[in-house]
């Protein structure tokens, strides 16, 4: 075993990135700003005083304060979904050692969508709890399938092979979704708004249903961070450091699938959040996953909430669904990343 590599791993797990405290403080401030703007902007713009009344004085009898209270569940749900997708993207990139891995790019979102459509069409499901379990099953099966296909042949699971496998799988599953929906108008009516990706219909029941999955996924992801740092140095070195690479990959991937599947079940397939948020944090703080994983939760929450507000402003007096906004932002970023030579491995 290479002693310098072991030394690098030890330094990676002990060094605190420069400006970490400053970045954390900026993220907290941005989160507060996102919450205020999300509560203030919509089909009707609410004054700051009404926002404060709606948050801290719920008994105040004003139209603006009542609007804020109705938007609060949507804001909290959006923050939770963004955090989940950010951490899910960071975990998938770490497990696959692929800097362009993301639930939407690897077809995981589409797999979850297919299972939800099948549940609506053949099992008559209609509740959030039922959506979640089907979406988790679809996300897990699709993730395993895409990684298996991408690992075939010489070189193993390279970024480009995984990207192609994910794109092909996503296209095939999308065709199956359409084939199931088209002859069944009632399925199409129930599915079409969900399939775009939106947090607009969020309720406190959805937040309560989602919270346990978010907590489990976040805790497992954060705890896995130090070991994933060693995995980034290669399987042989990680094994030499006493890490069971197969078990680690399974646990981290499990956390990523939980976060992605639960989000997709309740908000629809929102893409590119995991890709964008993780790259922003890695660009600022470096590759240490002890910090990238939790900070991706902050950046994911911020990006999704901002995208939701943009969708409301652009689509006013209606709204543009957040999944459309994130796709519009994320697609060019994916093209740029795929064109870089560094995309071969993390």
UniProtKB/TrEMBL annotation:
Keywords: Cell membrane, Membrane, Transmembrane, Transmembrane helix, Transport. GO terms for cellular component: plasma membrane. It is found in: Cell membrane. GO terms for molecular function: transmembrane transporter activity. The chain crosses the membrane at residues 20-41, 76-94, 106-125, 132-150, 162-182, 203-228, 248-277, 289-310, 322-339. Gene3D superfamilies: ABC transporter involved in vitamin B12 uptake, BtuC (1.10.3470.10). It comes from the Bacteria. It is a multi-pass membrane protein. It holds the Pfam family FecCD. GO terms for biological process: siderophore-iron import into cell. Belongs to the binding-protein-dependent transport system permease family. FecCD subfamily. This is Iron ABC transporter. It comes from Paenibacillus oryzisoli.
């Amino acid at each position: 075993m290479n002693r310098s590599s072991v030394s690098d791993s030890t330094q990676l797990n002990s060094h605190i990135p420069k400006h970490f405290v400053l970045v954390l403080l900026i993220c907290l401030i941005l989160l507060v700003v996102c919450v205020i703007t999300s509560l203030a902007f919509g089909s009707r713009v609410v004054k700051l005083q009404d926002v404060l009344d709606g948050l801290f004085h719920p008994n105040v009898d004003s139209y603006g304060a009542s609007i804020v209270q109705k938007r609060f569940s949507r804001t909290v749900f959006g923050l939770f979904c963004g955090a989940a997708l950010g951490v899910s993207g960071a975990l998938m990139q770490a497990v696959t050692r692929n800097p362009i891995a993301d639930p939407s790019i690897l077809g995981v979102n589409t797999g979850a969508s297919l299972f939800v459509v099948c549940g609506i069409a053949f099992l008559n499901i209609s509740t959030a709890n039922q959506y979640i379990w089907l979406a988790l099953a679809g996300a897990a099966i699709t993730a395993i399938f895409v990684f298996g296909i991408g690992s075939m042949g010489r070189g193993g699971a390279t970024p480009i092979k995984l990207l192609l496998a994910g794109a092909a799988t996503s296209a095939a599953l999308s065709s199956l979704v359409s084939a199931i929906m088209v002859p069944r108008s009632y399925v199409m009516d129930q599915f079409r708004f969900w399939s775009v990706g939106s947090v607009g219909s969020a309720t406190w029941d959805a937040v309560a249903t989602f919270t346990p999955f978010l907590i489990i996924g976040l805790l497992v992801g954060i705890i896995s961070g130090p070991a994933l740092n060693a995995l980034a140095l290669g399987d042989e070195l990680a094994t030499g450091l006493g890490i069971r690479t197969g078990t680690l990959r399974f646990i981290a991937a499990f956390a990523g699938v939980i976060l992605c599947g639960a989000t997709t079940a309740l908000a629809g397939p929102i893409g590119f959040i995991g890709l964008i948020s993780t790259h922003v944090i890695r660009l600022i703080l470096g590759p240490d996953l002890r910090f990238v994983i939790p900070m991706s939760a902050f950046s994911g929450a911020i990006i999704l909430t901002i995208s939701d507000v943009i969708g409301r402003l652009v689509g006013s007096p209606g709204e543009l669904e957040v999944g459309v906004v994130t796709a519009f932002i994320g697609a060019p970023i994916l093209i740029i990343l795929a064109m870089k030579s560094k995309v071969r491995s993390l």
